[in-house]
Amino acid sequence: MSELRLMKGNEALAEAAIRAGVDAYYGYPITPQSEVMEYLMKANPEKTTGMVVLQAESEVASINMVYGAAGAGKMAMTSSSSPGVSLMQEGISYIAGAELPCVVVNVVRGGPGLGTIQPSQADYFQTVKGGGHGDYKLITLAPASVQEMADFMKLAFDLAFKYRNPAMILSDGAIGQMMEKVELFDPIPRRTDEEVALQCPWATTGRKRGTQKRVITSLRLVASVQEEFNIKLQNKYKEIEEKEVRCEMLQCDDAQYVIVAYGSSARTSMKAVEIARKNGMKVGLLRPQTLWPFPSKQIETLINNGAKGFLSVEMSAGQMVEDVKLAANGKAKVEHYGRMGGVIASPQDIYEALKKFAK
Amino acid sequence: MINEEIIIAGFGGQGVLSMGKILAYSGLMSGLEVSWMPSYGPEMRGGTANVTVILSKERISSPILTSYDTAIILNQQSLDKFENTVKPGGILIYDPSGISNPPTRHDLNIFSVEATKAATERNMSKIFNMIVLGGYLKVNPVVSLDHIEAGLKKSLPERHHNLIPANIEGLKLGSELIQRINLYKEAC
Amino acid sequence: MELQDIIKEENIVFKKTKLLNDKPLSYCPGCGHGTVHRILMETIEELGIDEQTIGIAPVGCAVMAYEFMEIDMQEAAHGRAPALATGIKRVYPKKYVFTYQGDGDLAAIGTAETMHCCNRGENILIIFINNGIYGMTGGQMAPTTLEGAKTSTSPYGRDVSTMGYPIRITELIAQLPAVRYVTRQSVHTPAAVRKAKAAIKKAFEYQAEGKQGTCFIEFLSNCNSGWKLSPVQANKWMEENTFKYYVPGDIKDNFKLLKNPIIE
């Protein structure tokens, strides 16, 4: 039976983790996402579902605890905010290199460095273009509501296990801290050890005599072996790009100009589109729910249907705009509008930028 | 069609955020879409606090706004900051205690509710914010008293449910205390 | 009697454990790693816990430990083995988990992970190979390198005034209340090997009890290639020098300190 509640984004995410049957949360406190661990510690799911919640000594340790549990086939996750996620990049690269499923949540704050604790989207590059070392990709989900904070938790694990790939939920301080109505999905029981062993034959659950041992590693010392693995990864990424793009399009059917925005920027942009429509502008909103894979084909289709320009609205100096440009491939005007450092552009600001852009 | 965009602003500790939360919960109880967006950051500690609450029949676009249908103002700094953000024809409610420069806009429906005074007199400082909320709901009954009660039940931990009657009393008191301020009359 | 008549099952007096495969070890001849691998796998086999054991390999000379050990294993990033072990043990409290780490991995880059894992008393076994040098990368100074010892990054000898003192991390760890068993062993003589194996057995038996409490075994080892000595000379040098600073023996047992860990 689903349940209706008023919750903060961070709380909804934590509650959804318990309901999704997650086995372990390993984390380290950092503003503005400490509510996640606080909620979990208070809920004490170890007593109900058996989910482990552990405060680690650092983000470095938390991601490596996730690595261990994920390698043993369990649903493991961590959450942090920008500076903490920077510390996790080593572990994330190893997890990608060992092809393990896990979920990392980044409630982004302004940077670089210690930056601010206010919402930002300046970790886009870090998330979808790399972050750690080596050729790898993170399945990246961008929730724009408290409801999606809950729903994407389950989706992220589904995708992570489907492709044996780490998934990132890229949120921001605004979505994390705001309260909205949320319909919580019914709890899914945690898998038993037997189910884990059956579903994840690759996992280190203890080698049965007479069977092959399982080794979780990202080390491939011979160049040709490493390349073969890289090719395999790239093929997997291609499949994800073909099958897993998710986005929402609002009022795009007749739109001459389209705002592209995710997360809380998509919410303020939605209002900007309302204002623009009231003022007779034919504008729409493309809201990527997956940042990688990116909805490039959808942008191409919009251009074929008559869209003349795309305004990428982000709380950064302009990062996603590069992917919009790649997708538009010179066939439409593409520009960026955004504020930085934790400053949120208001719907009115975005509308003004849109008017200027459409001139 | 309900689509009410509200800013509640005052000092940290005046119950600004919780007033917004109760309002949002009550909206949820009456089947509305709701959003509650606090201002946070350095302002959170000791200084001013404000929260944007939206109650709507339809999907809420931006939880972050720059203009509002209603402003509920509990200190001078907040009045200075938000008076000009209320839409023409909108509502501005304030508690006169601590306000030395009252609102001056002629295109608003302005009300005062002497909540601080009433709460102090009755030794009910904990429900100060409910008196203010009661005033607002008298002027604009976006949610019913039943929904507020249901919202309180849902938002308060069980051990605090004994406080619900006092909160309801505060709401009723607020609805009696609220007064329209006629700027034209005062000017005459 | 022909040779073929002697090679019979009933005549076998020593057999390599099934948990080590036939791949040639990647360690230098005479290095302690091979012996520790053997007694570790022998113990796991003898205890019959191989189907429930998960090992964590480090970054360092033993980075490929999983190539030789025939049990389920994970390879950690440099220094992070205790975090992986924590992650696994917490979701599989009934399985046996051990880490296998060198001095750079455990006592330098992974100090935080090691200390906090032990401070939480994770019910795992940490195996710490201390040879006082970075073997894999070609003989650089380790946190445990003795004062005055020459390495490629301390070519004039370790100067403690600028490079710090050789760290007795095992004694530090023994101080943590959640740590159950701490011992310093070596594998340079048959007698030492027997004692070392008994220590590993004790640690796994403690782990079997399911109580919180970390077991920590340091193995003093030579690095004959890094020290530029023959295996025999290296072992002798170790006895004469290393053993004076890192004194072998039990330090803590069943949560009780056996001697003052501060050694002058």
Topology, element by element:
The complex is a heterotrimer of chains A (359), B (188) and C (264).
Chain A: E1 3-8, H1 9-19, E2 24-27, H2 34-43, E3 52-55, H3 59-71, E4 76-80, H4 82-97, E5 102-108, H5 124-128, E6 139-141, H6 146-163, E7 166-172, H7 173-177, E8 179-184, H8 193-199, E9 215-216, H9 223-243, E10 247-250, E11 257-260, H10 263-278, E12 283-288, E13 290-292, H11 296-304, E14 309-313, H12 320-328, E15 333-337, H13 347-358
Parallel strand pairs in A: 2-3, 2-4, 4-5, 5-7, 6-7, 11-12, 11-14, 14-15
Antiparallel strand pairs in A: 1-8, 6-13, 10-12
Chain B: E1 3-11, H1 16-29, E2 33-38, E3 48-56, E4 68-73, H2 76-82, E5 86-94, E6 109-112, H3 115-121, H4 128-139, H5 145-155, H6 164-177, E7 179-181, H7 183-187
Parallel strand pairs in B: 1-4, 4-5, 5-6
Antiparallel strand pairs in B: 1-3, 2-3, 6-7
Chain C: H1 3-6, H2 32-47, E1 53-57, H3 65-68, E2 72-75, H4 81-91, E3 96-102, H5 103-109, H6 111-119, E4 125-130, E5 133-134, E6 140-141, H7 160-163, H8 169-174, E7 179-186, H9 190-208, E8 214-220, H10 224-227, H11 231-245, E9 249-253, E10 256-257
Helix pairs in contact in C: 2-9, 5-6
Structure description:
With 359 residues, chain A is of the alpha/beta class. Chain A is 42% helix and 20% strand. In chain A, helix 11 (296-304) crosses helix 12 (320-328). Chain A is globular and about 70 Å long. Chain B has a single domain, classed as Pyruvate-ferredoxin Oxidoreductase, domain 3 (3-Layer(aba) Sandwich). Chain B has helices spanning 16-29, 76-82, 115-121, 128-139, 145-155, 164-177, 183-187; strands at residues 3-11, 33-38, 48-56, 68-73, 86-94, 109-112, 179-181. Chain B has a 7-stranded mixed beta sheet, sandwiched between helices. In chain B, helix 1 (16-29) crosses helix 5 and helix 4 packs across helix 6. The longest helix of chain B has 14 residues, at 16-29. The model of chain B has no long low-confidence stretch (mean pLDDT 90). Chain C has one domain (25-257): Rossmann fold, CATH 3.40.50.970. Chain C has helices spanning 3-6, 32-47, 65-68, 81-91, 103-109, 111-119, 160-163, 169-174, 190-208, 224-227, 231-245; strands at 53-57, 72-75, 96-102, 125-130, 133-134, 140-141, 179-186, 214-220, 249-253, 256-257. The longest helix of chain C is centred in the C-terminal third of the chain and has 19 residues, at 190-208.
